[in-house]
Amino acid sequence: DTRVAEAQHPDSPIFKAGDEGTKTSPRAKSFKYLRRSFRRSSSEPSKADKDPTPKSPARGDHDSWPDPADSEAVVWYTSACQTYSQSKDQLNLSRSMQGLGDAYYARSDYSKAEESYTQSRDISSSIGYERGVAQATRGLGDVHLARHEYTRAENAYRRARGVFHTLEDPSGFARCAKGLGDVCQIHARYATASKHYVEAQEAFSQMGDQLGRARASKGLGEVHYLQGEHAEAKRLYSKARTTFSQLGDKLAYAQTVKRLAELHYADGDTMQSQKLYIEARDAFSRLGDQLGFAQSLMRLGDLQWVQGKDSTAKESYKQARDIFSKINDPNGHAETVRAIEACEREDQESGGSKGGSVGFGKWMNLVTRTPTQAKESSP
What we know:
The protein is an all-alpha fold.
């Protein structure tokens, strides 16, 4: 199929669109690639290039297409899949299925995302569209990672990375390297995780993708943090935080600020830690991220308690406890309940006066806690 060959050629508009796809929000990367892949080539258009998809409010100008997180994206891609299926345009059908998978993934509907990615992969394979196979396989890796199916995620990322390497696709290669870094980090294979994150950093840098590089740097910072290398972790987090702020990745920004707060707290810098936790709390609040908001509140309660502000600490703990209960987070709920009980027990034992030993014990417990013991706010 000449259109498949054209799509896979490095100089083609479709290929270049794929390279640019990582410069958007984490869940919109693939959507941006797909959006651009529908644009007409300057060469002679085939029947599929004439874009038979029915016009709808979601169609119109390319820049007005819905974000993958919106329900409109699912509606639009479902319609596109039906149209390309009827016209037997397998190439655009595979791309539409990929887009549908991205839209479902953005909504955390992982079962439907997996189904769409699998169909896209199989269609691409049937027409020899290797790039489509790799993109769908990488999407499956993202789904497996989100569902904590780490072995399956690693296998998918490795397969896709191999194809992207063969096709000399730095965008796909970088994203797979980042995914492999995440998997290895979770399994405490820190040396391998660092290697993958550095590969991702270099590939993103070559493309001029600052946001992708920042995400890889954030992952590398996590590896240094988990190994107790706080100075390097702070450096990487701080640099990533600046990029996230400049480019508008609000969730990654909030998560990075929270990690910096934890680092400063572990190093005994309570003033800076409190400032950063407040910044993280407010950032999560603006996003409507209740888990990140509750976690930041709980840590502010820890700081307030150590500082002898028991009544303020209890209010923070209670607010966090109620949110953990609402979002069905048993670990967070249990920890805040224990913290409230500890506050009340200290009040009873001290008769309302401040005793330092309990607060110090709380301090020592918190500074030795690793980030892996708390569920992270959703990526």
